[in-house]
């Protein structure tokens, strides 16, 4: 059990690092200068929705995992969460960052994360976690 947990932790670190590097690469290819929402008028909306989303997410993750014990339910939970979070950020970036195409990067990451999560069982089988 301990090896499985460490394997998932390492996998999460690798995935987050890959998404970070992918974001940098997409920004470079599209010529997008990364800006923070805190520099724009939408920062209060962004902070409030992020806070509420993460509280709800942290409270419902254990329910989706331990009560259902169904990989498909958990997979769709993560897909819907990703769509909400990335979608919301892309809308804010589009609305408040008028001179930036940063929302395009966010939408690309949304699509890639949904594809990745949908195929997570296959990814796990390749690396030997499941």
From TrEMBL:
It comes from Solibacillus palustris. InterPro entries: DUF4181 (IPR025441). Keywords: Membrane, Transmembrane, Transmembrane helix. This is DUF4181 domain-containing protein. The chain crosses the membrane at residues 6-26, 47-67, 73-92, 104-124. The keyword Transmembrane applies.
